[in-house]
Amino acid sequence: LDTKEWLDNTRLPERPYREQQSSTLRKAIWQRPPVGWVKCNYDVSHHEGNKFSGLGWIIRNSQGICLDCGMGKFQGRQTIEEAECTALIWAIQCVWGLGYRKVIFEGDNLSITSIINNKTPNPRLRHYLDFIHQWSEAFTTIKFKFCHRENNVCADILARKAIVCNTNFELYRSCPGFLGYYVNNDVKH
């Protein structure tokens, strides 16, 4: 009974949950990167304090094909901005480690994307931002873009799944089965 209850409370929905929550004013359309680039969408499932937070990232090419993706968990941060920066740093390091050098990093936190692109001073995030800018120099070309939540479904699913995963980090060198529907849905549009 305990196992069934746990599974019922941690199972990802069968139907596309984002489609259920999407605004009628916006259509959820993931944008492919240009030829020669890859796009890494990233997201965080934030929990403050001692609870685990999850992060997820997915790398796709100009055809929308999932090349690599991963998820991990870490101790919660005080703010969502700190958690988003943590997820982005993990994504940057993983993408670099996998050998990609011409990358668009796309997340659904407009504040973080603006702060990074405008190099806006932020004392609370200074350490994170310095780290992101230092890592950025290791790439041939790097861009940071904002996308609406509806366009970041795959990274969000990975971030939420990370929290209930038995390991602290998972790397997939191709699209995992649980994500296939969502990746294909992005490509269709």
TrEMBL record:
Transmembrane ranges, per UniProt, are none
Q: Which domain of life is it from?
A: Eukaryota
Q: Which positions fall inside the RNase H type-1 domain?
A: 41-162
Could you tell me one molecular function GO term of this UniProt entry? RNA-DNA hybrid ribonuclease activity
Name of protein: Ribonuclease H domain
UniProt organism field: Arabidopsis suecica
